[in-house]
Amino acid sequence: MKARMKDSVTVSVAIATYNRAGMVRQAIEAALEQTRPPDEIVVADDASTDATWAALTELADHESRVRIFERERNSGGVENWSFAIGQTSGDYIAWCSDDDRFMPGHLEASVAYLEAHPEVGLVHAGFADVIEAPECAAGAAQAQARPLRFPQTRIVTQRTLIAYLTRYYDWPFHPSTLVLRRAVWERVGPFNPAYALADTDWFVRAVEQFPAAMLARHGVYNRRHAGNWSNRLGSARMQREILEIVEKAIDRLYSGMTPPELVWKAAWKALWRMNVRMRLLLTLRARLESGHGDAACAAWNMLTRGTGRALPQSVAHTGRVAIRWWCGRRAPKFEDTRQSVSPL
Question: Which of 5, 149, 150, 232 is 20 to 30 A from 166 in CA distance terms?
Fold first, then answer.
């Protein structure tokens, strides 16, 4: 039976944008076309230098639910994310990246679940990739739905969070599928600008305080293109930040000094670092096979110097020389269309 939402419930969509006039227009239009329309869509322009502000002004002139804010200076991204959410007023807050688009029933399903399960603080869902690779003809991009992780809704709590992050290291959640209660944002606080992966750090801090539900449905179209935030970071930096974010979460979970807590903390950190090293080895192998020397060296540097005990400089240097020699023998290639728009 479908849960009914109370008429008094209000829903806000928050979007932060920078230099994406066409994409953010599509993100806003998809939000407006929801089966459960939002009560407001707050868009914060991070001092764009293209036609983004003009596009937002046009939309706001024709749709009163679209509220737009122009920043005086560019914040670099993360600060603007917090600013956008800070301007919302709804009981529920739905986040959407400016290059993604909600699927039609995303807000209805997410809010209905939260209304029916008051013990859950936030929900997220699966997604479908929409690939815009250089070799794709204009207008030829097609959605490729990623397999759902679970056949039924799965709850993650602080006690199961570390195991969940270890198992689903690559995609613990999709930011544009997040829908949360206002009380969650008010208690957890804004994104931490110390991290480029500030959304991952925020998700971890949120689940430490509120149960999160992953709905067994697809929520958004995830646009894959060369300008993705993850591409600007690169795979090695992303993995370095995830390592630190999760190790801090382990410290918070086992903050006591009793022998059992110290043992559990040491065990989880050892398991987590082993997991990261394995992922880095897989990344290194993939980059060697595709001939991407810079990306392979970045993964090697992280593997040898950034996951606990560092190897000698001579070993790290020898490895980089060998990687350069190996990748210099071939032209970089992509085995999968998604790789051409994914972080290296």
Answer: 232
